[in-house]
Amino acid sequence: MRLHVIGCSGSFAGPDGAASSYLLEQEDADGRVWRVLMDLGSGAFGPLQSVIDPADLDAVIISHLHPDHYLDLTGLEVFWAYHERTDLPQLPIHAPAPLPERLSAVLSRDGRIPDGTDRVPFEYGALTDGQELRIGPFEMTVREVQHPVEAYGFRIRAGGSVLAYSGDTDACPALDELAADADLFLCEAGYVEGRDDRFTGVHLTGRRAGDCAARAGARSLALTHIPAWTDPEVPLAEARAAFPGEITMVRPMDILELSS
Ligand SMILES: [Zn+2]
Ligand SMILES: [Zn+2]
Q: Which domains does the chain have, with CATH numbers?
């Protein structure tokens, strides 16, 4: 399984990159490469086009409906609805149930059909806690996590390896379950110990991400979702004090290979 970091800036696009978006690739037994996008936050549709032709996407997963995780679906929808290829199938989008109405509101229109076309470009599926998703060679477990809005984390098995993705969350038992023995735990660390102690139930810190990775027995930890106003060395040091395994701080355009 290959993970491309398209955007990883926390809460809003930063000067050096877009908000959250990660592309997963895995070849199936017939040699076909499947491509699933996890989140498409503010600014991320631009750099996605420098990594793949978005028409090659097989599905999109949206962890929750904060703009830094879904807003650039507006661009992807325009791309899909008005593409010169008229044989594009409906693109499956797995997201919290209110997504279609939310996108229609952002685009100032009624319903799901873009102006001037006669078909719905996206096929929506509502995420639920405990759901199991199968997309080509990807097997995904969906768990609701701890955030101010309906939000999900994911445990993804493909090619003999396991990737866990926190989405946005504070520490919670579901996150520990998702990360259990994961080969790579892609985990947000949007807050900093001390500075952000007045908030609870929103984001992890580097320390809380490291604590979770240690409890779960994850093999390696990749920190993400660091806002532009935070020095990444701070959450990195917090995580290193809590988790003895390998830790990386992801950067835009990083490629992480998971091997079995
Ligand atoms: Zn976020
Ligand atoms: Zn959020």
A: 2-250 (3.60.15.10)
